[in-house]
Design a protein that fits this description.
The complex is a heterodimer of chains A (470) and B (277). Chain A is built from 19 helices and 18 strands. Chain A is an alpha/beta fold and 470 residues long. In chain A, strands 5-4-3-6-18 form a five-stranded parallel beta sheet. In chain A, strands 8-16-9-10-11 form a five-stranded parallel beta sheet. In chain A, strands 12, 13, 14 and 15 form a four-stranded antiparallel beta sheet that branches. The N and C termini of chain A lie far apart (64 Å). Chain B is of the alpha/beta class and 277 residues long. The model of chain B has no long low-confidence stretch (mean pLDDT 93). Classes of the chains: A alpha/beta (470), B alpha/beta (277). The complex binds flavin-adenine dinucleotide (FAD), iron/sulfur cluster and FE2/S2 (inorganic) cluster.
C-alpha cells in the first residue's frame, strides 16, 4: 500500500489538550482543524452522487456540497451552505453524534475511517465567526403578527430565527437568567465553549428577536395570557426535559448527593468552578460516584475531575455496549482516568452523623432478557452487595418533563410519560395556536433533533398563520 | 427594571427593599417568593415576597444579612438595580374559607407572614398573630401586623420588649384556651418552625410552615431544594414553599441548609477583603 493510500484511509486528527493537562482546566479539549488540515480532510470525500451521509443527517445538510467548498478554500461559502439547513453549525459540529448519524453511513468508512464531517462542520463555522461580524440576511417586510416561544434551547432558538426571517415578530421567554437551554446550563465549557452559544443568541437578537430572560411562563405569564392578552398569534413550547430523576433509594437527600442538573448548572451556568470569584459554591468531592451512561453522566464525571476530585467512578447498571453517550466522550473520559464500573447499581447512600454522604452501597448486575428499548435488561445478582467510600455523588440517570408550565395549560394533551403530544411534522398540539417541539415532546434527545423540530414547526406555524386562523 | 425604589434599615443586619418589578407584582400572591441575582457573578437566592403593590408595580423583600449575597444586597442603595428578579415562584398560601387562624412569625419571618395574615383578614377570617424576635431591635413589621391582626402578641427572647418568651409559649396558651382555631401558619427560623409544629401537634391543628431551602433555579429543574414531607421527597420550590409542619423532616432541612457553611464563609471573607480596599 502506498503512503498516499494509507493517509486516505485514516482521517486527519485534530490536535487536542493532553489528558494530564486538560483535567486541570475547563478549556475546550480539541483545538479544531487548521485550514490546511481541513482542506486535506475534505480531500478524503469522494463526492458521492448519491451521498449516504445526507440520509443520516436529521436536517439534511448538503454534506458533499459544503465539503467540496472547503476543498476549494471557500470556507465562508461552505459555512453558508451548511446554514441553509442548520443554523447552529458551530454547536452541532461539536456535540452531534455524527458517529451514529452522517459519519456512520459514509462510504469511506467501509474501508477505513469515515470522513470527519463533524470536525469539518466545526471548522467552517469557527472560521466564519473569526472573520468578525456575521453578515445579517435581509429581512422581509413585517407581517404584523407575533409569535411567542417558551424556552431558549436549540428548538426555541431555531424556531425564533426561522420565524423572524419570515417576517414575524418573535419573543423568546426563558425561565433562567441566560438563554441557550441545555447548551448553557448543561453541556460544560470544555465541550462547548459558552462564547459560541452566546454568539448564536446574539445573532438572533440582532435579527430582531426579543429574548426575555428570567420569565417563567406558567408563573409570570400563562400561555393563555400570551395568546389572548398579549396579542401573540401562536405559541411554540420548547421547554425541554428539565426535571431531574432520582433513584428513590435511602439516603439520597444527604448532603453531597446532587442531581446532574444541579451539579452541571452550578458549574456551567453559575460558574461555580470560578468560586469565589463567582458566588455560587459547589461541593468538591475527593472520591466521587457518577451514575448513568449517557452524555450527562460523562459531562458530570469529567467536571468532577476538573474541580479537583481525586477519584471519579462512573457507575452504570448495564455494560459498555449499551452506554448511550457519544463514543468520543467515552474515550475522552477514559483517557482522563474516570473509572468505569459496569453492571453496578446503587442501593443505598450512607451518611455520617452530620448528614454528609460518606459511602455507597451497590449491587452487581447481570444482563437478562431484552426490554422495550431492545437493550438487555440488567438484573441484580443476589448477595453481591458491596460498599465504596465516596463523599460526592451525582445522579445522571435521565430527566423527565417539568410539570411547572404544562400543569397550567389544562387543555394540552400529554402522553403517558407526561410529555406534550405534538405532530412530528408540524409540532401542532391538541390546543389551538399552540405548537411544541424538542425534548418536551420527544423526551431527552439531541440538539439536532430539537433544532429540526424547531425548523419544521416554524414552517408549519407560518402555514397556519398565513392560510388559516387555526 | 428591578431598580431599588426604596430601602429601609430596621437594624444593622435587617433591611427592607422595594423593587420595581411590575410583571411580578401583577401576579404575586401571599406565600410566594422570588429568585434574585444581584450582579453578573452573583448566585441565585430565593427571598419571600413580603409585600406587593400591583398598581405601583413594586414588590417588597425583607432580608437578614448572613452571607455574601445578602450583605451585598444590604449595601445597595436606592436607585441601584438588580441583575435579575424572577417570579413569582412557588404556590400561594391557601387563604380562602377560614373563620379563625393563627399566624406565627419569628425574626425575619415576620415579613413574609404579613401578606399571609393580611390575606386571611381580607378573606374574612379572624386573625390572631404572634410575632417574636431575639431582641427589641430585631422586631420588625409590628405596625403592619397590628393593622391586619385582630389580636397581636409580641415576644422577645431577652424580654427587652413586651413579653419575655419564645413564640411557642403564648401559642400553647392560646390553643389551650381556644379550640376554634382552624389553622396555624408559621414562618421563621427552621428551629422555631420545628417547635411550633411540635406545640400544635397534640392539638391536632393543621400547621403550615414556609420553608427556605437552598435553591438554584426555583422552578423544579435541579432538586437542590429537596426535603422530606413524611415519606416523600419534595422540591421546596415547586411543591412548596409551604408544607405540613407535622410531617416535615426538620433535621434534614437544617442539615441541608448548612451544606455550604464553609463556602459561604470563604465567600463573605473574600467580599469583605475587596470592600475594605
Ligand atoms: C449535560 C447534557 C449533555 C448533553 N450532550 C449532548 C450532546 O453531546 N449532543 C447532543 O446532541 N445532545 C446532547 N444533550 C441533549 C440536548 O442538549 C437536548 O436534547 C437539547 O438541548 C434539547 O433542546 P430543547 O430546545 O428541546 O430544550 P432545552 O435545551 O432543554 O431548553 C429548554 C429551555 O426552556 C426553558 N424553560 C423551561 N420551562 C420554561 C418555562 N416555564 N418558561 C420559560 N422557559 C422555560 C429552560 O430553562 C431551557 O432553557 C445533552 C443534554 C445534557 C443535559
Ligand atoms: S458519504 Fe462520505 S464520501 Fe460520500 S459524500 Fe458523504 S462524506 Fe463524502
Ligand atoms: S431550586 Fe431547583 S428544583 Fe427547586
Amino acid at each position: 500500500m502506498s503512503a498516499d493510500e494509507k493517509t486516505k484511509k485514516s482521517r486527519v486528527r485534530m490536535k487536542e489538550q493532553t489528558p494530564e493537562g486538560r483535567i486541570r482546566n475547563f478549556n475546550e479539549v480539541p483545538f479544531g482543524y487548521t485550514p490546511e488540515q481541513a482542506v486535506e480532510e475534505a480531500g478524503r470525500c469522494i463526492q458521492c452522487k448519491r451521498p449516504q451521509c445526507v440520509d443520516g443527517c436529521p436536517v439534511e445538510v448538503d454534506i458533499p456540497g459544503f465539503i467540496s467548498l472547503i476543498k476549494e478554500n471557500k470556507f465562508i461559502e461552505s459555512a453558508h451552505k451548511i446554514k441553509e439547513k442548520n443554523s447552529l453549525p458551530a454547536v452541532c459540529g461539536r456535540v452531534c453524534p455524527q458517529e451514529e448519524q452522517c459519519e456512520v453511513l459514509c462510504v469511506q468508512g467501509k474501508k477505513g475511517e469515515p470522513v470527519a464531517i463533524g470536525t469539518l462542520e466545526r471548522f467552517v463555522a469557527d472560521y466564519e465567526a473569526e472573520q468578525g461580524e456575521l453578515e445579517l440576511p435581509k429581512l422581509p417586510p413585517k407581517l404584523g403578527r407575533k409569535v411567542a416561544v417558551v424556552g431558549s434551547g436549540p428548538a426555541g432558538l431555531t424556531v425564533a430565527s426561522d420565524l423572524i426571517l419570515l417576517g414575524y415578530d418573535v419573543t423568546v421567554y426563558e425561565a433562567l437568567h441566560k438563554s441557550g437551554g441545555v447548551l448553557v446550563y448543561g453541556i460544560p465549557e470544555f465541550r462547548l465553549p459558552k462564547v459560541i452559544v452566546q454568539r448564536e443568541v446574539d445573532y438572533i437578537s440582532k435579527l430582531g428577536v426579543e429574548v426575555v430572560c428570567g420569565a417563567v411562563i406558567g408563573k409570570m405569564l400563562t400561555v393563555e395570557e400570551l395568546l389572548n392578552e398579549k396579542g401573540y398569534s401562536a405559541v411554540f413550547i420548547a421547554s425541554g426535559a428539565g426535571l431531574p430523576l432520582f433513584f428513590g433509594i435511602p439516603g439520597e437527600n444527604l448532603n453531597g448527593v446532587y442531581s446532574a442538573n444541579e451539579y452541571l448548572t452550578r458549574s456551567n451556568l453559575m460558574k461555580a468552578y470560578l468560586f469565589p470569584q463567582y458566588d455560587t459554591p459547589i461541593k468538591k468531592g475527593k472520591r466521587v460516584a457518577v451514575f448513568g451512561g449517557g452524555n450527562v453522566a460523562m459531562d458530570s464525571a469529567r467536571t468532577a475531575l476538573r474541580l479537583g476530585s481525586e477519584e471519579v467512578h462512573l457507575i452504570y447498571r448495564r455494560s459498555r455496549k449499551e452506554m448511550p453517550a457519544r463514543h468520543a466522550e467515552i474515550e475522552h473520559a477514559e483517557e482522563e482516568g474516570i473509572k468505569f464500573n459496569f453492571l453496578t447499581n446503587p442501593v443505598k447512600f450512607i451518611g455520617d452523623d452530620k448528614g454528609n454522604l460518606k459511602a455507597l452501597e451497590c449491587l452487581r448486575m447481570e444482563l437478562g432478557e431484552p426490554d422495550d428499548s431492545g437493550r438487555r435488561r440488567p438484573v441484580p445478582i443476589k448477595g453481591s452487595e458491596f460498599t465504596i467510600d465516596v463523599d460526592l455523588a451525582v445522579v445522571a440517570i435521565g430527566a423527565g418533563p417539568n410539570p411547572l408550565l404544562l400543569s397550567t395549560i389544562p387543555d394540552l394533551e400529554l402522553n403517558r410519560r407526561g410529555y406534550i403530544v405534538a405532530d412530528e411534522e408540524t409540532g401542532k398540539t391538541s390546543k389551538r395556536r399552540v405548537f411544541a417541539g424538542g425534548d418536551i415532546v420527544t423526551g431527552s434527545a439531541t440538539v439536532i433533533l430539537a433544532m429540526g423540530a424547531g425548523r419544521k414547526a416554524a414552517r408549519a406555524i407560518h402555514q397556519y398563520l398565513e392560510w388559516t386562523n387555526w | 427594571m428591578f431598580a431599588i425604589i426604596k430601602k429601609e434599615v430596621f437594624s444593622p443586619e435587617v433591611k427592607l427593599i422595594e423593587v420595581d418589578a411590575p410583571a411580578i407584582a401583577a401576579k404575586a400572591r401571599p406565600g410566594q417568593f422570588v429568585v434574585l441575582r444581584i450582579a453578573e457573578e452573583g448566585e441565585r437566592i430565593p427571598l419571600t415576597i413580603a409585600d406587593f403593590d400591583r398598581e405601583k408595580g413594586i414588590i417588597t423583600m425583607v432580608f437578614q444579612e448572613v452571607g455574601k449575597s445578602t450583605v451585598y444586597l444590604g449595601a445597595l442603595k436606592e436607585g441601584d438595580k438588580l441583575a435579575n428578579l424572577i417570579g413569582p415562584l412557588g404556590n400561594p398560601t391557601e387563604i380562602e374559607g377560614y373563620k379563625k387562624v393563627l399566624c406565627v412569625g419569628g425574626g425575619i419571618g415576620i415579613a413574609p407572614i404579613f401578606p399571609i395574615a393580611r390575606g386571611f383578614k381580607e378573606a374574612g377570617a379572624e386573625v390572631i398573630s404572634i410575632i417574636g424576635a431575639r431582641t427589641k431591635e430585631l422586631l420588625i413589621f409590628e405596625e403592619r401586623m397590628n393593622k391586619v391582626s385582630d389580636r397581636l402578641i409580641i415576644t422577645t427572647d431577652d424580654g427587652s420588649y413586651e413579653r419575655k418568651a419564645l413564640v411557642t409559649e403564648p401559642l400553647k396558651e392560646i390553643l389551650e384556651e381556644d379550640s376554634s382555631i382552624e389553622k396555624v401558619v408559621a414562618i421563621g427560623p427552621p428551629i422555631m418552625m420545628k417547635f411550633v409544629a411540635k406545640t400544635t401537634q397534640p392539638f391536632g391543628i393543621k400547621t403550615i410552615v414556609s420553608l427556605n431551602s437552598i435553591m438554584v433555579d426555583g422552578t423544579g429543574m435541579c432538586g437542590a431544594c429537596r426535603l422530606e414531607e413524611g415519606e416523600e421527597t419534595k422540591f421546596c420550590c415547586v411543591d412548596g414553599p409551604e408544607f405540613d409542619g407535622h410531617k416535615v423532616n426538620f433535621d434534614l432541612l437544617i442539615s441541608r441548609l448548612n451544606m455550604y457553611l464553609d463556602e459561604e464563609k470563604a465567600s463573605l471573607e473574600a467580599y469583605r477583603k475587596v470592600e475594605d480596599k
